[in-house]
Amino acid sequence: MVVLDKFEMPNIDLDGIVKHLKETGKYTHQLWLNDESLAFIARGRTYRSEFHINPSYEIQFSLIGDLDLHYRTPEGETKIAHVPQGSVLYQEPFVPHSPRFAPDAFQFIIERARKPGEIDRFHWFCPKCDNFLHEETYVVDDYRKDPVGRAYDNYYTSLEFRTCKKCGTVAPGRD
Fold first, then answer.
1. Is the N or C terminus of the chain more exposed, i.e. has fewer CB atoms within 10 Å?
2. CA-to-CA separations, 167 to 66, 125, 131, in angstroms, rounded
3. What's the rounded Cα separation, in Å, for the pair 50 and 29?
């Protein structure tokens, strides 16, 4: 039997967090992080184009607005799972996925906390010929460190990373 010294069940004000994200212009707010799970609220980004590959499952709840979850099959085909407001999607680990939703839309996401040594990958592909463009890797152990934002900064500030070596197309920058 496990004896808990401190037992908390926080009541989280999701409306207040959405308001805070809108007012500050931030894109994520971590709700909790413990040995088993992490949860956060994410706001949409118009420039999102990468495919995130992580070792955890994801549970994505469309809190406000709709989500179009672009994902790549093992054969490299891109498909879209539409998640309307009020709906939830469960995603298996290691599925290359790109959650795309409007800046005024918000997702509530729960994931398994990463185990030591696990790496998250971010892949970009050419918008014209689908050739692999670039990979960023991060240890995602705390969303307050903004690993996704750092991956975007590295990619979008580099013309070299955004230029296709196969067809010469330059992928768009951030708008």
1. N
2. 33, 12, 8
3. 20
In one-letter notation, the amino acid at residue 94 is: F
- Asked if residue 167 belongs to a domain, the reply is no
Place of tokens 């994410």: 42
**174 inside domain:** no
3-state secondary structure of 16: helix
**Does some domain include residue 123?**
yes
The percent helix, strand, coil of the chain (3-state, each to 5) is: 15, 35, 45
CA 171 – CA 155 distance, rounded (Å):
10
* Residue 5, in any domain of the structure: no
SS3 label, residue 43: strand
Q: Give the dihedral sign, CA 81/86/87/88.
A: positive
Look up residue 101 and give its two tokens. Answer: 């939703």
Per-residue pLDDT of the chain (175 residues; tens, 9 = 90+): 344 455 666 789 999 999 999 999 999 999 988 889 999 999 998 888 999 999 999 999 999 999 999 999 999 999 999 999 999 999 999 999 999 999 999 999 999 999 988 999 999 999 999 999 999 998 877 777 777 788 889 999 999 999 999 999 999 988 6
Judge if pTM exceeds 0.85: yes
